[in-house]
Amino acid sequence: MPLTHDDLVIALDALQAELPSMIEEYADTGDFWNAFAGRADAIEAGDETAYLNARIDAMLLAQGVAPEPFTRTTTDLTAMVDLLEADIPRIRAKHENEGGFWCEFDARADRLEDSADPSDQPALRQRIESMLIANNLKPENDVPCEG
After folding, report:
1. pTM
2. What confidence category does residue 20 fall into, taking pLDDT thresholds of 50, 70 and 90?
3. What is the pLDDT of residues 62-111, one digit of tens each?
4. Whole-angstrom Cα distance, residue 117 to residue 105?
5. What region, left, alpha or beta, does residue 116 occupy, with left being phi > 0 and alpha being psi -120 to 50 degrees?
6. What's the DSSP call for residue 47?
């Protein structure tokens, strides 16, 4: 039976908390993906599959683990962009300097663009630009990537 949204958030938070120890425990990539997929597949999202996928990708990227590449649906992309926008304050607070923020933000935005169908990429770029403007952010090309 699909989880309620609150229970889905709790289950995903638990998976995210477990992720660093899973990465350490399963040094072999294949073993890691089998263990992670087993835990993630047990979470039944029902109508919130796009949210589930967005959270999973975000938690993997935050740990430096690239999600398996594939072309995302427009619904999945929308959920992931919504999540990225909601994460802006957390990303800003996490990094002591702008370089760290831009490195993390750009990595997540680039990953979204890479996984988008070419027909969705212009709208995705426009949405990312709009979120930056709404958050008074301007990309800096010369800011070094640091903590």
Report:
1. 0.57
2. very high
3. 887 876 655 667 777 788 888 889 889 988 888 888 888 888 888 888 87
4. 20
5. beta
6. G
Q: In b/e form, how buried is each residue of 108-135, taking b as 16+ CB within 10 angstroms? A: bbebbeebbeeebeeebeebbeebbeee
- Residue 46's CB is within 10 A of a number of other CB atoms, namely 12
* 131 compared with 138, residue with greater pLDDT: 131
CA distances from 45 to 6, 39, 76, 92, 144 (A): 11, 13, 13, 29, 39
Q: Sort residue 136 into left (φ over 0), alpha (ψ -120 to 50) or beta.
A: left
3-state DSSP assignment of residue 72: strand
SS3 content of the chain, % helix, strand, coil (to 5): 70, 0, 30
Q: Is the pLDDT of residue 19 over 90?
A: yes
CA angle 48, 3, 84 (to 5 degrees): 40
Identify residue 46 by its one-letter amino acid code.
G
Cβ atoms 87, 101 nearer than 8 A: no
